[in-house]
Write a structure and sequence with these properties.
Layout: E1 2-5, E2 14-17, E3 28-37, H1 39-45, E4 61-69, E5 81-83, H2 94-97, E6 121-124, H3 127-130, E7 132-133, H4 140-160, E8 168-172, H5 176-187, E9 191-196, H6 199-207, E10 212-215, H7 222-229, E11 234-239, H8 244-252, E12 254-262, H9 277-282, E13 286-289, H10 298-306, E14 316-320, H11 325-331, E15 343-346
Parallel strand pairs: 8-9, 8-11, 9-10, 11-12, 12-13, 14-15
Antiparallel strand pairs: 1-2, 3-4, 3-6, 3-15, 4-5, 5-7
Helix pairs in contact: 4-5
Bound molecules: zinc ion (2 copies).
Length: 350
């Protein structure tokens, strides 16, 4: 099969012919019809993810068709249209037993712990626990965007963030996950303040329901701007980028007893990120993390997509083939996707 592969961190990836994967006993091989290009793929390529071993094929948000299933798979067979959360759970550890597959103790992640979906086929573990049926009529490109960014945003806003109608929600960083969060929070009846440095991203945020926008490149203090617009601070705020500055701005833009949800990864040399905990104490803030979403939690989200309340299809702003991936990956280093804003989807058979 053809796959995007890199042999050294930060050095150009290449499209190569490599061996087709085989399904594990409990796993499947999926023919990849669409796979999203996410900032986490760039982090992995840069060497920020300790799970990756070289050479490596990235790609973790995907949709496609089951090509082959291992002998212990009972719920899926060849021909099924599927997607998968980027955290694939083991199904049997204490976290899984509690229904928290998104923080499974023995999780695998395509594109991190093993070769991912920037390829024509990808192997996925524990298929009975992790696969999600793609509804009839949903395009693969749309389904692919659910696996990481949309589902992650859904859990962060709805489940971890406990959004309520009428609340102010600040979203710091309007890439794929941030725009998803804007759309989901607005659909829940919240008033959304979108924060980004890119005018194109803010235009999309407005289109997806943001009531207010803050151009972080034009204001001296982003958190103060959010507090001003929201009459004292957001009830719920997300760092959807994952940087010390956006994390701090998110926490500092909250009102009393507000909730910060950290969604963007925070890679750093030291492995730690400073958080304004003095404000967390004084204002009784909640500081939460959010990590993907379990497969069993998808139906409620998919119902809203089917009803047209949520429109992940609108997030897809660019579709490319495998040959364009090395360049697109490199372009993310400049802080944006190849399309500038929105979600880029790869079609490996195009
Ligand atoms: Zn991702
Ligand atoms: Zn588990």
């Amino acid at each position: 099969m053809r796959a995007v592969l890199f042999e050294r961190y930060g050095k150009p990836a290449e499209v190569r012919e490599v061996a087709d994967p085989e399904p594990a006993e409990h796993g499947v091989v999926v023919r990849v019809e669409a796979t999203g290009l996410c900032r986490s793929d760039w982090h992995g390529w840069q060497g920020h993810d300790p799970d990756i071993t070289l050479p490596h094929v990235p790609g973790h948000e995907l949709a496609g068709v089951v090509e082959a299933a291992g002998p212990r798979v009972t719920r899926w067979r060849a021909g099924d249209r599927v997607t998968v959360p980027f955290v694939c759970a083991c199904g049997s550890c204490p976290a899984c037993a509690a229904g928290d597959q998104q923080v499974c103790e023995r999780q695998t992640q395509p594109g991190f712990t093993h070769w991912g979906s920037f390829a024509q086929y990808v192997a996925l573990d524990h298929a009975d626990v992790n696969l999600v049926a793609v509804p009839d009529g949903m395009a693969y490109a749309t389904a692919a965007s659910l696996g990481c960014r949309f589902a992650t945003a859904y859990r962060a806003v709805v489940q971890q963030g406990r959004v309520a109608a009428g609340e102010w929600v600040a979203v710091h960083g309007c890439g794929g996950v941030g725009l998803s969060a804007v759309m989901i929070a607005a659909a829940a009846g919240a008033r959304v303040v979108a924060v980004d440095v890119a005018p194109g991203a803010l235009d999309l945020a407005r289109r997806f329901g943001a009531a207010e926008c803050v151009d972080a490149s034009a204001v001296r203090d982003t958190a103060a701007a959010v507090r001003d617009l929201t009459g004292g601070g957001a009830h719920l705020s997300l760092d959807a980028l994952g940087a010390p500055a956006t994390c701090a701005a998110s926490v500092n833009g909250l009102r009393r007893r507000g909730r910060h949800v950290q969604v963007g990864l925070l890679p750093s040399e030291t492995g730690t990120t400073p958080v304004p905990m003095a404000r967390a104490v004084a204002l009784e803030l909640e500081i939460l993390g959010s990590h993907g979403m379990a497969a069993h939690a998808y139906p409620a989200m998919l119902d809203l997509v089917r009803a047209g309340v949520l429109r992940p299809d609108l997030l897809v702003t660019s579709v490319i083939g495998l040959d364009a991936v090395p360049g697109a990956l490199a372009a993310m280093g400049e802080g944006a996707g190849p399309a500038g804003s929105g979600v880029t989807v790869i079609e490996p058979w195009a």
